[in-house]
Design brief:
Structural class: alpha+beta
Family: Belongs to the phosphatidylserine decarboxylase family. PSD-B subfamily. Eukaryotic type I sub-subfamily.
GO molecular function: phosphatidylserine decarboxylase activity
Number of strands: 17
Distance between the termini: 47 Å
EC number: 4.1.1.65
Oligomer: single chain
Protein name: Phosphatidylserine decarboxylase proenzyme 1, mitochondrial
Keywords: Decarboxylase, Lipid biosynthesis, Lipid metabolism, Lyase, Membrane, Mitochondrion, Mitochondrion inner membrane, Phospholipid biosynthesis, Phospholipid metabolism, Pyruvate, Transmembrane, Transmembrane helix, Zymogen
Number of helices: 9
Strand content: 15-25%
């Protein structure tokens, strides 16, 4: 497969999808496609198929309001797309199970280094009152349990008199003590992956779920929770097929393919959302990103340019281009998304990988007992099965509080 020009073919296919279809061929053509791939035309927002000028517009169709209701449980993680659940579970030792017996590294999927804060790459807020923006962002954070920092825009500098705020009464440590402690902390930080749960009491864990979108599925994807997207990483990888068959036969498939990794946080900690490209996927679109456009004949992102330079040197490019959404909100430090909100989409079927932190639950006693002993109380609960078909808005699981 690596000898096939899959990227070039996929880009040409994307271009072919954008060719205009003769008016009289649109209805029979789209009805035939829908019959072959199982598209439910009764859900499509525009019933007149003549309106869609090409395959790309039909792939990226919208749905009627109300056909994808959101699960009412506020602690639930919703399905981000229509598709089939390929795999899900808990992440142990930084390994994600692709299929039974085949794993890949979370570092390879998301990147092994901690996200930086590069120059912002998002559209700033519209020109409205700053105070209204900050109050709205603060309310979003409060309602959804997300931590935030409120800038000191109205009250001026913090008071520094003893009656209003305690003063610092510390003395300076010895230089040798400070150096030794800094070295120990540096070793500790280096040994812990940046994506690992921060809780020292091990009360939370990382979970993952993989959802495959078939060619007949609704191709737009949505936010599974209310969260803040702080940064984006674009990996300009390969474009292998992500069909269930190849997922069973090609180890590390998702770490080889082109993908867009969105990193941020929700009320329970770390949250990442990764749309993965595939053969004949015309493009991965992120609605709130100005620069990103993947797998296009006219693409010119930083990751693509770096990959081309590496190819010219005869090297394999495994890096990524990173962008920040910090300027979207001075309060939240990222772009706020409500549960169910449309985020972007694929221009053909592909895959979404969610990796998120959630509570493990509490022990029923001090002695956790054997594997067959009592389960933890509360914590994350799955509400899905391998191979299950899901739709946008259905609960994949929830945090039992």
């Amino acid at each position: 497969m690596s000898t096939l020009p899959l990227k070039a073919l996929s880009r040409l296919w994307g271009r072919f999808n954008e060719l205009q279809i003769p008016y009289y061929l649109r209805v029979p053509g789209f009805r035939l496609y829908s019959w072959i791939f199982g598209v439910n035309l009764s859900e499509v927002s525009e019933p007149d198929l003549h309106v869609y000028p090409n395959l790309a517009s039909f792939f990226y169709r919208t749905l009627k309001p109300g056909v994808r209701p959101l699960d009412p449980n506020p602690n639930a993680i919703l399905s981000p797309a229509d598709g089939k659940i390929i795999q899900f579970g808990i992440i142990e030792h930084g390994e994600v199970e692709q299929v039974k017996g085949v794993t890949y590294s979370l570092d390879a999927l998301l990147g092994s280094i901690r996200p930086k804060n590069p120059l912002p790459n998002t559209t700033p807020h519209p020109n409205i009152n700053d105070e209204d923006i900050i109050r709205a962002d603060e309310e979003f954070a409060r309602v959804n349990g997300i931590s935030y920092t409120l800038p000191n825009l109205f009250s001026g500098p913090f008071p520094n008199t003893p009656t209003e705020m305690p003063t610092d009464q510390s003395t300076s440590p010895t230089l040798s003590s400070e150096a030794a402690v800094r070295a120990d902390l540096a070793l500790s930080e280096a040994s812990r992956p940046w994506w690992a749960p921060a809780s020292s009491k091990d009360l939370s864990a990382l979970y993952y779920i993989v959802i495959y979108l078939a060619p007949g599925d609704y191709h737009r994807f949505h936010s599974p929770v209310s969260w803040v997207v702080e940064s984006r990483r674009h990996f300009a990888g390969e474009l292998y097929s992500v069909s269930p068959y190849l997922q069973r036969t090609l180890p590390g498939l998702f770490t080889l393919n082109e993908r867009v990794v969105l990193l941020g946080r929700w009320r329970y900690g770390f949250f990442s959302y990764t749309p993965v490209g595939a053969t004949n996927v015309g493009s991965i679109k992120i609605n709130f990103d100005r620069e990103l456009r993947t797998n296009s004949l006219t693409t010119d992102t930083a990751a693509d340019r770096a990959a081309e330079k590496a190819k010219a040197r005869g090297e394999l490019y495994a890096g990524f281009a990173e962008a920040s959404y910090e300027s979207a909100s001075r309060v939240l430090g990222g772009y706020a998304l409500k549960r169910g909100e449309e985020m972007g989409g694929f221009q053909l079927g592909s895959t979404i990988v969610l990796v998120f932190e959630a509570p493990k639950g509490k022990r029923p006693s001090f002695d956790e007992g054997s594997a067959a002993g009592p389960a933890r109380v509360g914590g994350w609960r799955w509400n899905c099965a391998k191979g299950q078909k899901v739709k946008v808005g259905e609960a994949l699981g929830w945090v039992d509080e």
